[in-house]
Structures are given as structure tokens and as C-alpha cells.
Amino acid sequence: MRLSDDQITHLTNLLAGELGKSQLITLKKTLAEARQVIARELRDELRGEDEIDAEVRRRLASYSRRIREGTSEWEVMYQQHYQQALRRRGLA
Q1: How many domains in the chain?
Q2: How many CB atoms lie within 10 A of CB 56?
């Protein structure tokens, strides 16, 4: 899933704001430092999803019989390979 820097910043601010208001946790760092950590983790997670997406698309493109993107067959195979990639990385 692709998010712009503005969208990541907005999400980061929302999450850090809620963490700052929460009485259930105590931040060991400043709110600004928490924002930086949240933003970095969001970007890393999104980068990982992009890598898996690219891997799955390469795999589907390597089939000898061409499967057209957007067809129900392609969608089913994409989801199967995507889930396998997540399991291989220990994310599912």
C-alpha cells in the first residue's frame, strides 16, 4: 500500500497524539521521538509490503501461461502467493 509522506506524517501524528493522551502507558521518550519511531516503523512495514508485492508479481509473470492481471484467476493466485510470502517471512 503506497502512502505519501503527508499521509504517513498524519498517521504518525494521530498515533503519537493518542499515545500521549493514554493513561495506560508511559512514554520513555519525548513525543517528538515517539513520532520519529512510529514514522520509521510505518515506512519499514510499507516497504516490506511493497517488496512482497513485487516478488509476487514477478512470480506470476514468470508463469509460462500468461495470466492477465485483474482476472479472478490472477487475484486468487496473487493472494495465495502473497500469503505464502508472508508466512515465509514469519508475518502471517
Answers
A1: 1
A2: 19
